[in-house]
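1st attempt posting a full record on here, be nice pls
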Amino acid sequence: MPDSDEALVAEIARLRAELAAVQERAQRLERAVQAAPIAINCVAGETGRYVFANEAFARHVGKPLCDVLESDPYQVWMNDSHPDDIGAELEAVGRIAKGEIDRYQGEKRAISRGEPCWTRVEVVASRESSGRLDYVTVYLSDIHEQKMLAEARQRLESQLRQTQKLDALGKLAGGVSHDFNNRLLIIIGYAELMKGQLPADSPLREQLDMVLTSAQRAAELTRQLLAYSRRQVLKPEAFDVNDTVDRMRSLLERVIGDRIELCTALGASYPVFADPGQIEQAILNLAIHARDAMPGGGRLTLETRDVTLGQGRTGPLPPGDYVEVVVSDSGTGIPPDVIPHIFEPFFTTKAVGHGTGLGLSMVEGIVNQSGGAVAVTTREGEGTCFAILLPRAQEVPRPRYVAVDAPLREVSFETVLVCDDDDGVRRLLSDVLRLRAYRILEARNGRHALEVAAGHAGPIELLVTDLVMPELGGIELASALRERHPTLRVLYLSGYTEDADRLSAPLEPSSRFLAKPFMPGDLTRAVIALLER
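the predicted structure (as tokens):
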């Protein structure tokens, strides 16, 4: 064989070896790309058809690989993209086709497999030396879990900020409410006493009414702040929420007006354990909110039903038995951008001077502090529904004490120890009770009260004490005094306490709680009700 032939054979063998090596590398590369967790496909720039797709892309669009390669890439893309996300990607593809850009990165919701799945998209153009588009490669990465974790983190951070805001407001409200309510109590108390001493036709009575009205509005604002911050003192007891709604019916009808129809569907058969007065306030606030959402009239519906939350349910409340109170209206509904803010303090969509923005935040504060939860569902133009879940009571409701039903006596002989660290409040309490001929002992704090009691030879029938005082609080004072006076009755007074849980259980029959500020008649009736037991 000539030398030239041998050289040719050797060259052919070398080329075959190189070709085999290239084919092996290409096969390894294809196996690697096919096994990649990232979905990859290539579309020819000239024909607009698929020239390659890996198994991950086939799984992504939910088709066999052979069907994908025979499909129209545009239809596959349209079927895979959420309508709200198509615009940005379509614009980028158009710019790639025009040669304006060679790469695009973005995020979209892939919907080809049912539920939207967040996906990161990267489109890379490959061009010939002339600039002509050769093919486009698309890389798709599943970032749904990362996206959900990021959103969950944002929600948690938002909840943390809200909690910090609530705690700061609570500290602010708590820090001023005790002294503020004492001042209001003195204003309201002495204004009422002065009014009672004036002739019926005195022009000063109208002026005193203005003082009382303003002071009571200030007291209501303090109560709303405390309710939102969950630092008010609750007086929970077992009560029938159906009776509460029935009793409130006439009040609610006056509040909502003649243009709104009030309907009730009371299906709850179990009592709840909460502060009945605060739950009444929450229902009233929701009714006012519903009224304002129906300026042209409509229907307000109050429903009650028994609810059992099972295991495995997500939500703020643990599994168990509850009673649900639903307040719904046929009003304007709440816009989607407003819903996240409706329970925030001072947030309002009303005009200046037409609301404090504390109504719904007060509802949430009352319900949460009562061990329940409140949820809202709404649709613009179709109305809003607030659902309150309250823990079911494990005891039988007892008849509620209604202070205004207690008669006033003209002459009394019992000895009452009045203890308050505020001189003005203590003097007011003593003056009101002296008008009813009670024998009054005064003490400026808990330690002083023990000294006064030790120096008093006779019995002490009643202790009227502030709940929160330096060194020795009202509960500790009452416990110490009962060692010597076992039949002692106690009336606790406070507008705020950092240790509200100490009064979270129902008080014994020989004790009651009266929230500051109050009217002089409320104090007298509460004292009479205790001493006549």
